[in-house]
Description:
With 506 residues, the protein is of the alpha/beta class. The chain is 42% helix and 13% strand. It has three domains: 1-84, no CATH class; 111-175 and 182-402, Aspartate Aminotransferase, domain 2, CATH 3.40.640; 407-505, Aspartate Aminotransferase, domain 1.
Amino acid sequence: xxxxxxxxxxxxxxxxxxxxxxxxxxxxxxxxxxxxxxxxxxxxxxxxxxxxxxxxxxxxxxxxxxxxxxxxxxxxxxxxxxxxxxxxxxxxxxxxxxxxxxxxxxxxxxxxxxxxxxxxxxxxxxxxxxxxxxxxxxxxxxxxxxxxxxxxxxxxxxxxxxxxxxxxxxxxxxxxxxxxxxxxxxxxxxxxxxxxxxxxxxxxxxxxxxxxxxxxxxxxxxxxxxxxxxxxxxxxxxxxxxxxxxxxxxxxxxxxxxxxxxxxxxxxxxxxxxxxxxxxxxxxxxxxxxxxxxxxxxxxxxxxxxxxxxxxxxxxxxxxxxxxxxxxxxxxxxxxxxxxxxxxxxxxxxxxxxxxxxxxxxxxxxxxxxxxxxxxxxxxxxxxxxxxxxxxxxxxxxxxxxxxxxxxxxxxxxxxxxxxxxxxxxxxxxxxxxxxxxxxxxxxxxxxxxxxxxxxxxxxxxxxxxxxxxxxxxxxxxxxxxxxxxxxxxxxxxxxxxxxxxxxxx
Length: 506
């Protein structure tokens, strides 16, 4: 039975027409699928209404019955949100075994964002993740893969030397304790043992890169990921504003080069830390790496741009740059979809260049046959097609697919104006020393109010006796004024109570 294209509603946007076609395709294949182990129970109607062993409910206006009722979640029966949409493996390639995919839409998401960040059309790569942590994981995993393949010849050479020494000499406990050994043979074996030890140390250095990041300010997921990938953690001192101290990084890189000359380096650079919204000086980080780490030591830079990655071309923290990849030394970028872009489902993006990904995953590696003989460069494997479409719809609604950044620019401008407004109100209330805000940041740090206000306004606990507010699209002047009034009332009440206590004590 051929698929019939649905008639689009009058108010549908041109990029949304593809969603309708995918909906029709999903409805068709859901009732014809014999393969991949997914029951589709939530999206299919129970055809056997008379079965007494299955509890079903009747959907108003429909002849069939449902087993799972998703209407309480606001999901309309038979809608696209109720369909099973899954993307498997590298979005650059279609999967022959999974026809119900949103891979074209996922490719559009990556193309829209990498082009926005300055890459030429077709030069970007990546995929949509389950959130910022997976995006960071993929970025660091890809970096490690890239560095391994970059040093592949050297790794193979050292591995061969290690095998040769072990085949020629037998280093067992008997040899080490036998006093009757020939002195010349003992000396020869001792030299070989030292060479073996040295080669194994170099081999270990090449396999497990060191990761440099700003201590206390870098997202906690980086530590988890470093443990999972076997990366050696090297926390770098932070400046007062939460950004990486470049002088400290440079000193640490020099020491690293002197002690671990073969050990590759990954630097995690922040573009909008969780609490302070700090943006690291990434061009300066790149310069420090280039000037300090000469061959054979190799390196990559991963940018954690969970919040501010979307705003970089508008905020221009590094002045005018051609792009936010090669021109500033960045290899991978992690961006959250649910933070600045505000998708209602948690999702993210890991972005890189085609060239970098091809070096990290050479042809015919990581190929999985049962998903269509395609490469899988993702850490999650299966990904929600619905999340991908939510992210795509948000980006297109802002005009990013047409390279129209006026809506996004207006949002950034309004958010920064409101952040400035909040900081001014707080300084008038608390004094300048109790409030920290910098131009170009959405985060405002200030003296901690009562637990009641922290909960009521969902403030983020920060350092010592301070909290942070993050001023994004949901924050209005009226909300700020209401919070300031509450805070002022709280402070006034506290002062009155203190005065009464002093009076009673006197």
